[in-house]
Amino acid sequence: xxxxxxxxxxxxxxxxxxxxxxxxxxxxxxxxxxxxxxxxxxxxxxxxxxxxxxxxxxxxxxxxxxxxxxxxxxxxxxxxxxxxxxxxxxxxxxxxxxxxxxxxxxxxxxxxxxxxxxxxxxxxxxxxxxxxxxxxxxxxxxxxxxxxxxxxxxxxxxxxxxxxxxxxxxxxxxxxxxxxxxxxxxxxxxxxxxxxxxxxxxxxxxxxxxxxxxxxxxxxxxxxxxxxxxxxxxxxxxxxxxxxxxxxxxxxxxxxxxxxx
Length: 261
Prior knowledge:
Layout lengths: L1 E2 L2 E7 L8 H8 L10 E6 L6 E7 L4 E2 L3 H13 L6 E6 L2 E7 L4 E6 L3 E11 L2 E9 L3 E6 L8 H9 L10 E9 L2 E8 L4 E3 L3 H13 L7 E5 L4 E9 L2 E10 L11
Parallel strand pairs: 2-3, 4-6, 11-12, 13-15
Antiparallel strand pairs: 1-2, 3-4, 4-5, 6-7, 7-8, 8-17, 9-10, 10-11, 12-13, 13-14, 15-16, 16-17
């Protein structure tokens, strides 16, 4: 499945067929030897929601949240499992509400964003970078730039992701350029994938949260991703506190097949 250029192998794991999720993800996500993907989404049973979702990155690490993955699993639940269009599912970051609309359009409510820093500064390769640090289910650094297309996201992103300040877990890194009063452009270096991806839902949300709180844009925010899709982030706030964050965009099933364990 694909959402905004993030691609996932989605598996119905209610019978526990995938026992070693880390090893499975490394195998199935590998290019040439496997299917090739950014990660694996496991659809599992839940005692407190419609289902439980697990997100396994291609390096075998497990993520608490993935906005694009949330949209994919919601569409999967609707089209394959035949759940109603509105659902609640369990994730590592908490309960997620989702609504599946027409033509693969999915809107999800993420967990309440947490602000760690709004005006931090880092020394990376002899350069000073001003950043904000936000958690939208997983940690994200937000760095505002000019000339987004010229940024070496892989090199700078990796240096920030592995910086001593964010050890041991590390962080995702977003480079943001303000396009207009309701639009931003975002490129993301994703932890676990260990490279730039075509889009990141939680990263787009974190970038929108910081952009709104700094007064650069107004909500709802249209996010232009590297993959070309436009995501819509709608925020509810009370003063300087964002109380709710919604992510909306399309997801699709690319193909279905069998994988031999």
